[in-house]
Amino acid sequence: MSTPKVPWKAVVGGSIGNLVEWYDWFVYSSFAVYFAASFFPDGDATTQLLNTAGIFAVGFFMRPVGGWLLGRYADRKGRKAALTLTVTLMSASALLIAIAPTYEAVGFFGAVVLLVARLLQGLSVGGEYAASATYLTEATPPGKRGLASSFQYVSMTAGQLVGLGLQIILQNTMSDEVLKSYGWRIPFVIGALGAAVVFYLRRNLLETEAYDEEEREVEGGTKDRGTIKALMAHKKEALLVIALTMGGTVAYYTYTTYLTKYLVNTAHLEKQTATLISFCALFVFMLIQPLAGSLSDRIGRRPLLITFGIGSLLGTVPLMTALASVDGFIGGFVLSLVGLIIITGYTSINAVVKAELFPTNIRALGVALPYAIANALFGGTAEYVALWFKSSGIESGFYWYVSGCAAVSLAVYLTMRETRDAALSRSEQKAGEAESVPIRL
Question: Residue 141 belongs to a domain with what CATH number?
């Protein structure tokens, strides 16, 4: 029996758009320290960041809408069509932020423009996650899906690294005054242009065999395909996605988008040092995703999820407490990397686990909507909750909040079924009948 090969062309095609999507999504957070005062001039630095973090969180609440609309679209029109649509929406929203007028020019109307752009980004990302996760999973043969799907977080992290790298360049070539005046607009212009390039590239992707097979077998598909009615037939799996996402998404946003602000506002490091720490830690984090994804193809998905759950439950409070008192690059880098290594047990395989839970006719919506709901409730609000605890004088309360979310997800990881050997199409089922592979059509 020949060893299955990773279809790298499909992996790159699905991932490169994801890179641009998440570059645009995360660059808002990483440059917020520079443009917060442009839209919310009143109050201290923490209050301004609270306002921009609030708009960041609002974008997450559009993700369930995007998950529903674009997940349905992916199940009814195809994964390729959905991937193309999501990157188009992201390009438009990035351009809108780039040209948003400031408070000084038009008052709070500029903040309204910022809000509308974030709502569009939320809509786009809500569908992008599922379309990308479903495409990468379906386009890869059994035995390599953990490896292939890990590139979703490779591309997500790469997008953030591009944003952080650009921030480092701008910090070293522009003064703080220039960055706060107009320099912060540059990354959003770049994001809009990058998305336009990816739109062209995604038009040349091939549709997945699982989706094409579904189209052929049921003569264009059932009328319930990609609908809430069809999803309700899989309520247990949908609730499972929400619960297993809860701890992972809070931890992820804590050690990624919020980390730079935390190092500046709490540890009182220079902005340049905090940004460099995040960049270096995320770079290593990106490199280890495929290693963990490949490991899950050998030992299963649950062992990695359980390892993350235990590590996040027991490690968050001491790690965040130690990060609050770091005084330089080395200490901040080592502690940040430890946190990112812990959450690799979740990030490297969460996409494939969710896709393996659902049948083809509802797979994109089944991944998109529950995941987006969990992100809206927990991931999108993580930064806001952290800043609220800080402004209330009980910052350590946030550390326990992250640990509590991890405890809930850990309980799910310990009781859920293993998904590694699930067949995702009829052809896979026929090929694996001799091994009694459970079918997920």
Answer: 1.20.1250.20
